[in-house]
Write a structure and sequence with these properties.
Elements (H helix, E strand, L loop, with lengths): L1 H11 L3 E9 L7 E6 L13 E2 L1 E3 L4 E9 L3 E12 L3 H6 L3 H4 L2 E8 L5 E4 L6 E3 L3 E2 L10 E3 L6 E9 L3 E3 L10 E9 H4 L11 H13 L34 E5 L7 E2 L5 E2 L4 E9 L5 E9 L6 E8 L6 E9 L5 E12 L16 H12 L12
Parallel strand pairs: 1-9, 1-10
Antiparallel strand pairs: 1-5, 2-3, 2-6, 4-5, 6-7, 6-8, 7-11, 12-18, 12-22, 13-22, 14-17, 14-19, 15-16, 15-18, 19-20, 21-22
Length: 382
Amino acid sequence: MAGAASRRSFNHGSPFKYVNFRVRIPNQEGNVVCLVGSGDELGNWDPRGAKVMHLDADNNIWCCNVMLPSPEVFRYRYFVCRPLWHEVKDRCSKVDVLKDASGISVLFWESNIVCRLIQTRILPEQFDMPIVDFSVRYHHYSEWTRGWLFDTEEIRLRIAGKSPIEITSLPAGKNILLGIRCTPKNFKAMSQLRTLPPVLSRESGVRYGRLANATTLPISSFYTGICGPGDFNNLICKDNESPFCGDIFMSKLDGVKCIPALQEAGGILCCPNEFITFNVNTCNAAALGFRFEIYDVSHVKSKLIGYTYILPVGKWRSRQKVLIYCKNGKEIGHLTVDTLYFTPITSLAMDMKISYQNHWKMENRHRRSTEGTDYVLGPNFP
C-alpha cells in the first residue's frame, strides 16, 4: 500500500510536468521545426504562438522542453516553417522567432485527422517523449501536407508554351538543349550598387518609368544592365541575401507525379510545350525580383550561356517577354515568363486544429484499410 501511495504521489502530486518533445525530421538550412497544440502552453493552434524546437546536431533530433499543467489532456501537431525578415539585422536581434518575424512561411505540417495526444496525469514530473522519426515510413502519422499562405505572399513564375526560350544568335543548323534556373534577388539591395545610366533609349525610359510607378523602389533598381559587361561573374551577380523570401521550389509537369523540389545547380531541362513553375514565399513582394540563368545542357557539364531579370512589377498577374543577355552583354534571345501573385485572405482565420484533408485522401485511406492494406506515405521533404 505504501508503494502504491508513493507512485500516486509521484504521478499526481506536482501541478506541472516537464515534457521533452523530440522529433527527427529531414530539414533545410533556415527552416525551423515547431510544436503547436491546444492550450496556452502550446500556442492554442496558432502558428505564431507555437513552440520553436531546437536542433541537437549530434543526434540530428529537434527537441523542445515544455512545462504543462497536470492533470490535463493536450492535443498537438508538428510543423516546419521558415521565418522571414524584412532586414538581415532584424533576424539577428529578435528573441521570439515566430512572434517577431516579419512573416512565416508554413512549409509542411501534420495533417492527420486525429491529432497527437498527451495526458499529463499519467506522466512523471520529468518525461522524455519517444522520438518521432519522420525520416522513415512511419505508421499513419507520416501524413504531411504542404503549408498554406499564413501571413506571406507567394510568387509563382511559369515557363510554358511552344517556345518560351528563344535563342536567336545560334549558328544555322545548330541545335542545343536548354536548361533554366531561377534565383530570387533582393532588388532593393541591388539598387544601392548601381545608378541609373545617364542615357536611356525612349523605349527603355518608358519601361523604367512604368515599373517605378508600380512599386516603391528607387528607379535605379530597374536598370536592366545591373549585371552588364564586365560584371557577369562578379559578386553583384551572385545571390543576394534576401531574408524576406524562402527557398525557391521548382516543379515540372512531365508525365510523373509533380512535386515541388529544390533546383539543381545546372538548371532544369526546358523543352518546347513543357510546363515549368518556380514558387517562392515572401513577406516583401515589392522588393523581390528574379534572375533567370539559361544553360546549355547538351553535354555532361552544363554551361551558362545567358541571363535575364524579372523585376518587381506589383501586379497580381502578368506576362513578360524579356531579353536574354550573354556574357559580354549582347542580346541573344528572349524569355517569356508568366507571373502570378498569391496573397492570404486576412479575414479568413485558419489554424492547425483542423487538418483540412481533402476527400480523396480520406476516401483512399478508408478503402485501403478495408482491404487490409496499411495506408502509409513517407514524408516527401525537398
